[in-house]
Amino acid sequence: QVQVMESGGGSVQVGESLRLSCTASGLTFSKVYMAWFRQAPGKKREGIQCILPSGTPSTLYDESVKGRFTITRDNAKNIGYLQMNNLKPEDTAIYYCAPRYGGCSEDSFMYTYWGQGTQVTVSS
């Protein structure tokens, strides 16, 4: 049984930072591609970026986070991270990670396994 869990969200002020974590059990973590998505109120779930099993980030899906968000992973600990710096109100959303075998995709429908997400709220 695959279980995905995100953590690390919270309420912060503009300009502050958060680091989100993602764990996934029930699969071979070192072989999965892992993507981060976010869903703002009233909007569809959108891809941010994906990271290959090797630790190489994919093409950035969301240009609005360029230079502020960094995706990494630690295969030895079976955990993925999304470091978010200089947060803005428009970053307010529920953040999800999603693992899959076979490659990265920007499309949420390509991912089968999802966690409950972690809420990030940025206020000015």
Which features does this protein show?
globular, four-stranded antiparallel beta sheet, 124 residues
Number of helices: 0
Assign an overall shape. globular
Distance between the termini: 41 Å
Would you identify the regions where 5 or more consecutive residues have pLDDT less than 50? none
Describe the largest sheet. Answer: 5 strands, mixed
Helix content: under 10%
Quaternary structure state of the chains depicted = single chain
Q: Using only CA atoms, what is the Rg? A: 13 Å
Strand content: over 45%
Element order, helices and strands? EEEEEEEEE
Task: State mean pLDDT (0 to 100 scale).
Answer: 97
Please identify the structural class as seen in this structure. mainly beta
Compact description:
By secondary structure, the protein is mainly β. It is 0% helix and 45% strand.
Describe the protein in words.
With 124 residues, the protein is an all-beta fold. The chain is built from no helices and nine strands. The strands form two sheets. The chain has a five-stranded mixed β-sheet with strand order 2-9-8-4-5, with no helix packed on it. Strands 1-3-7-6 form a four-stranded antiparallel β-sheet, with no helix packed on it. It is globular. The mean pLDDT is 97.
Secondary structure blueprint with pairings:
Layout: E1 3-7, E2 10-13, E3 18-25, E4 33-39, E5 46-51, E6 69-74, E7 79-84, E8 93-100, E9 118-123
